[in-house]
Amino acid sequence: MSYALLNLIFTVPVLVVLFAYRWLAHWGTLCYTLVALLLMTAVFDNFIVGSGIVAYDPALLSGVFIGFAPIEDFAYTLVAAVLVPMTWWWLGSRVKK
């Protein structure tokens, strides 16, 4: 299984949840958060991949890189930027006040 296919398994359901609850999303905040997280991912992924701490099977990569970091690594950032606030909202809405 390629890394891109593995990313789709996690990314598609999260995007479906985002679409279903789009009225909850603070789009400006989400965009700023995504930009900040993607920049940090680019910096730190390049460090850990470039230094050899993490390695990927080249046969499973798409071949698209940002520096040393494969583009597939950035899907995790997208998922986290959407899933963490949605989970926080969902768990918070279940707490009795």
From TrEMBL:
The keyword Isomerase applies. This is Unannotated protein. It comes from freshwater metagenome. Coiled coil: none annotated. Pathway: Carotenoid biosynthesis. The lineage of its organism: unclassified sequences, metagenomes, ecological metagenomes. Keywords: Carotenoid biosynthesis, Isomerase, Membrane, Transmembrane, Transmembrane helix. The chain crosses the membrane at residues 6-24, 31-54, 74-91. Its main location: membrane. Residues 2-86 form the Lycopene cyclase domain. GO terms for cellular component: membrane. The keyword Membrane applies. InterPro entries: Lycopene_cyclase_dom. It is a multi-pass membrane protein.
